[in-house]
Design a protein that fits this description.
single chain; about 270 residues; five-stranded mixed beta sheet; three-stranded antiparallel beta sheet; globular
Length: about 270
């Protein structure tokens, strides 16, 4: 996940708690099953219509060589810092494919597209300020959201949590925690990830990094994702769209967009 880590052990990000290193070989494209709502499209071949939001599912499979030359020197240096080759490979594919998609939206060469980092860690395109984007990855899958207004996306691969209720009690609001605990035990893991991704998507949309407490606003636990309230008084739920964009079995995803109604297209990046 992009962005700064939460300070201190009491408020560390879910990524730090949950994303244990994965040393298994990368799955093939056929092993990653995406929901049919994600239409297969070649990256870079689709332009954004006004008011549209595109959510791309990017399988982090195959070899990274085709994307290596697209990365900036900073991105290449960052990929080299990964200790494990599989992590390095996934990073190159995710960021290279992101550049191809953003280049298609901007009508620019992906290799020379300037991507800057804001003061709070959120990437942006200095030469195309009308384009907003956000990238999230977990396991062997990434989600990229692109639109013409503030947005955030989050995806998590479902993994067993020994301390699920402890993490939920620390980070969720009281109402969310009680709703989660009211679920049958075999549904609590999915419920946890639903709440987490919906809240992370909003935090990434407003670009405050991971310093904002997760319990100052409420999101729904039901199938229909929506904001229930903001107790800090800074936002109005009616001015936001929250969508479940879970890409396939074993993954949960969410999209937050600063608009009352967002026209969302779900796309699956095909091999280039």
């Amino acid at each position: 996940m992009l962005g700064a880590a939460r300070p201190g052990p009491e408020a560390e990000s879910l990524a730090a708690r949950l994303r244990a290193p994965c040393y298994a070989p990368a799955p093939s494209m056929d092993d990653l099953q995406l929901h049919p709502s994600f239409a297969p499209v070649a990256p870079g071949s689709v332009r954004l219509a006004p008011g549209e939001v595109h959510v791309w599912a990017i399988p982090l499979t195959g070899e990274p060589e085709q994307f290596q030359d697209l990365l900036s020197a900073t991105e290449r240096a960052r990929s080299e810092r990964f200790r494990f080759l599989d992590h390095r490979r996934r990073h190159v594919i995710a960021h290279g494919c992101m550049r191809v998609i953003l280049g298609g939206c901007a009508g620019a060469d992906p290799a020379v597209l300037e991507i800057a980092i804001g003061t709070r860690g959120k990437p942006f395109l200095p030469r195309y300020p009308h384009l907003h984007f956000n990238l999230s990855h977990s396991g062997h899958l990434a989600l990229l959201a692109v639109g013409d207004r503030e947005l955030g996306v989050d995806v998590e691969k479902l993994r067993h949590l020994e301390s699920l209720q402890d993490i939920a009690r620390r980070h969720f609001s009281q109402a969310e925690f009680e709703a989660l605990c009211s679920l049958p035990e075999d549904r609590q893991l999915q419920g946890f990830y639903r709440l987490w991704t919906r809240k992370e998507a909003y935090i990434k949309a407003v670009g405050v990094g991971l310093s904002m407490p997760l319990d100052v606003f409420d999101v729904s636990l039901a199938d229909e994702a929506r904001f229930l309230g903001f107790r800090d008084g800074n936002e109005d739920p009616a001015l936001w769209t929250l969508r479940d964009v879970s890409p396939g079995p074993g993954y949960t995803g969410a999209l937050a967009v600063r608009t009352a109604q967002a026209a969302v297209r779900l796309l699956a990046a095909t091999a280039t």
